[in-house]
Amino acid sequence: MDFSFLLFLESPFFVLPWYVAGLAAAAWIVQDVSSANRHVNASLKIGWPIIAVFFSVIGLVLYLLSCRPPGIGKVQGEEAGRLHAAFVSASWKKVMGSVIHCVGGDGLGIITAMVFCRYLKVSFWTEFWIEYAVGFMFGWFVFQYIAMRKMGNSPAQALWKGGRAEFFSMITVMLGMGLVMRFVTTTIVGSSPQPDTAAFWGFASLGLLVGAVFTYPMNWWLVSVGWKHGMG
After folding, report:
1. Which one, of 89, 168, 93, 181, lies nearest residue 131 by Cα?
2. Which residues contact 178 (CB under 8 A, 6 or more apart)?
C-alpha cells in the first residue's frame, strides 16, 4: 500500500508546530479543568493534557466536543456539576472519556519505552513487547488502579478490576500502534526513526491516534458491560 501521502509526518516543518500547538492545548486544558471545568474526574484531568500533547488540535477539539459544556465557566458548585454530568451523559462521550483515560496512560508508557528501545537499537518484536509491557503497567498502576480506588474499591478489587479493563484496552491500542510501526513508518522512513528526529515524533503521534481509533469499539463494550465508567 502506498503511504506516501504521510510523508509530511517526517518533516520538522509539520511536526514542530504540531507539538507546539499540542503543548499549548495541554496547558490550556490544565488551566481549564482547574478553574472552570472542575468536575472532570481526576484521572481525565491528567489524561486529557497527555492526549493534547500528542494529538495537538485534534485532542483539543475532542476535549471541547466531548468533555467541556458550553458556558461551564459561568456557573459554580452543584449547578456546574449537574451541567457537566448532563453534557457527558451521551454514550459516545462516556466512551470517549474511557478511550482518553486508556490512551493517555498507555501512550505515556509506550512512548517512554519507545524512546529507550530506539536508543538501544533492539529488534522490532523486542521493542513491541517492551512497549506493550511498559504501556500496560503505566495504564494499570498509574491510571486504572488509582481510578478504581477513587470509586471505593479495596486495593485488591482495584488491582483486579483495573487490570481486567487495561488488558482488553491495551490489546487494541497496541494493535493500532504496532500496525503503524510495522507497516507505515518503515515504508516511509525505511527504518525505525530515532527520538532526535521529527519522524519519530510524527509517527508516534499517528500511532497513538490509530491506537485510539482501534480501541474505541473495545472501550464501548467495556463501558456497556460496566467494566469501565467512561467520562462521568
Report:
1. 181
2. 128
82, 110, 121: which is closest to 175 by C-alpha? 110
Contact 10, 188 (CB under 8 A): yes
Long-range contacts of 145-152 (CB under 8 A, 24+ apart): 146/42, 146/43, 147/41, 147/42, 147/43, 147/101, 147/229, 150/41, 150/42, 150/43, 151/229
Q: pLDDT per position in the chain (232 positions), as tens?
A: 788 899 999 999 999 999 999 999 999 999 999 999 999 988 899 999 999 999 999 999 999 999 999 999 888 888 999 999 999 999 999 999 999 988 998 899 999 999 999 999 999 999 999 999 999 888 888 777 777 777 777 888 878 888 888 888 899 999 999 999 999 998 898 888 999 999 999 999 999 999 999 999 999 999 999 888 766 5
> What pTM was estimated for this model as a whole?
0.91
